[in-house]
What does this fold into?
Amino acid sequence: MALVNGQPQTLGLREMLRVFIDHRILVIKRRSEFRLRKRRERMHLVEGLLIAILDIDEVIQLIRTSEDAEGARSRLMQVFDLSELQAEYILELRLRRLTKFSRVELESERDELKREIEALLEILGSDEKLRAVVSNEMDQAAEAFGTPRRTVLTGAVIRPTRSAASSAALQVADTPCTVLLSATGRALRLDREPDALESPRATSRATKHGAVMSSVDGTVRGELGAVLSDGTLHRFTPVDLPLVPSASIAFSAGVKLLDYMSVADKKLRVVGLVPLDTETPIGLFTLQGTVKRVVLTELPARPEFEVISLKTGDQLVSAFPAPDGSEFAVVASDAQLLRFPTASVRPQGRPAGGMAGMKLGTEAHVVFASAVPQGAEARVVTVADSSITLPGTDVATAKITDWAEIPAKGRATGGVRAQRFLKWEDQIACAWVGTGEPRALASDGAARKLPTELGKRDGSGQPIDGAAAFVGQAP
It folds into this structure.
């Protein structure tokens, strides 16, 4: 129950959020209009001052020969074509403002006011920019006033800065390890000791965040690479990541990899973990269907660098090893799935922008991409829902298909339909193609139960217990 425009109304979650967002839009709009008015008023006065300083001798002579302040104001308005406000402001001008330095300051202030006025006009003239301001300010509020965890995760160390190093890091042996990244962005470390490799792994339960999006082998104090959605690769060392036993992997003990690497922009996300200085090409797929293979050798010494030049509005969706002899698997939001050999994409240098990978339908975008070894017994998981409902508030349907049923097509084609939408469905919310047991997660990391039976390639899905936002491999 809430007051909306002075009237009591019973609101659901969707309606309550809409009322709140509408209120924030109105607040930002009124604030921008107020700031625009104030800056225009100040610009008006600054322009008058600049006129007075340019002809300061004539201004002083005119004021001295006037009978009174009213006469001086009228003559300034007439001679220099000033408004009453500008003339009054000049009459109140102090002599110390007549220096050359003050003129430079006024010109700088004028230019700054022009930029601010243009920015405010853009916000008021574009609903998209207005909503972007609302979104950014809500993110800043969450960052400033969000309540931190009150419990300490065992073994988790979040470094405050990229340069900060753990004092205990050098005391840790540089042994082989595997870093796992969950579909929800949490990372942890497994030791790959010989005894651990020989011991059987316990059956993994469907725990929270328990779906692996990417994994990479390395050493505890060695450097690995995390590829972000903006097309950059960030170096990091896994020494301070939480260490968990391989027989019982719990991603709830992991840390957010973006926080671990001290990435300031929280709108970015990690799309894959990769080894550095490897001869195996790394595959990259973007939202708009561009594909690229790059060999990560002779890398710059910088802590972060670009691995693909993205077009305006595009972003990376996936990063993964893509050796010759494997096949790309790409799923689009309109339920199209494309399968083509990785060898059809020649490796390019780091600055290159890639090539056409998948032909997308109108308003469609790439949801998932990976590389599947040729001849592997892989599975295709697709989860469909409606784009007009709030995430997590409605049901979805999921389908698991045998990879062998997907016909291979050529690069830059549209592929085949991977799931038939039901009447209320219009998009693939998440997807996964790979070997092993698939896992689906909600937006908060809670497990979602997938169907156990395989479906037809172009058949519809089966209802699952709530909407899903991520699909990955069981750890």
